[in-house]
Amino acid sequence: MDNVAALTVNDWLKSQIASEPYWFHRMELPGGLVTPGWNDPKVEKLPYFGLPDNMTGMRVLDIGHAEGFFSFEAERRGAAEVVAIENYPPMARKFQICRTAFGSRATSHLAGVYDISPKTFGTFDLVMFFGVLYHLRNPLLALEKVHAVCTGTLLMQTAMCENTKDQPMAEFHPFGVKSGPPDNPSYDPTCLWFPNPACCIGMLEHVGFKEVKRISRSAPVGGVFTAKAGLQAKGKRPAEDTLPWS
Q1: Rounded Cα distance, 141 and 86, in Å
Q2: Disulfide engineering: 87 pairs with which of 112, 118, 120, 149, CB 3.0-4.6 Å?
Q3: Residue 241 covered by a domain
């Protein structure tokens, strides 16, 4: 009977994966399933993005979770609670498909980086801010929001411009850039700001982060940075009796 139930779940997962026309990340799921994404984060991102090997007990925020690869990886490494946000509904649907496959306790919220605050989401030991900054119209406002909820460590990855001089600067693309897989590129109007490394460091320091460093200089995708919150404290869930609706 267990085999029949497992087969039924597997078939359901296959149908759900097939029902989504676009997958970004190629993810290996239990039961031998693999999502048909064009980017393999296990190879192209995970070795470079600075996740701690041991995340036991951490409260983690994953901003712009896409299909959830890093949320589930944080959970696999021992995170006590993973809160994930995404403002694109199709990605939130795919997160739920993968969450079911993994039997994960990570939670997805349909929200953007401008929506986060200590009052609504609490504070976090680790904030993962991967592949989001260059999509934002107001990157400094976003980083202020991120700093407000980070009481531990920030890991940030972003696309950058080719200027590597010490002077902070950023390219602005008012109508976006080409994106997607090399063999089937598309035009992405949300790719707006491409800072150089000095600009990334400067923006993070400007909003209050300390010990800002660029890591993984050989990363094949943009720049990866780590930073410490100005005030270090254990991440906490929001107080449910004092939330905005109370």
Answers
A1: 17
A2: 112
A3: no
